[in-house]
Amino acid sequence: MTAAPPPVPDRYTVVLRPGPPGVQDAKGHAAVLRTARVEATGATGVSGYPCFEGEGVQAEIDPESRAVEAVTVDGEELPYGWIAQLADDDPRPPRT
Q: Cα(46)–Cα(34) distance, rounded to whole angstroms?
């Protein structure tokens, strides 16, 4: 008998940052270029993960690892050097 997959949250906050994780702004804060609250669409993307969209951002998100597997911003690919992550305070699916 296989375990059921963990539930997928209804929404996440996608954080767009410049460069690799750990880049900081002039005040020593983690640099953030844009945030977007995305909601589940009920569809599955080409990556095989659930689709989310909102505030001009479309993303496919692995709910288990919390990795943003595919993302577009205002209908375009993520600008060169930008990375997409989930906000740390977003709900995490329960571990079984």
A: 24
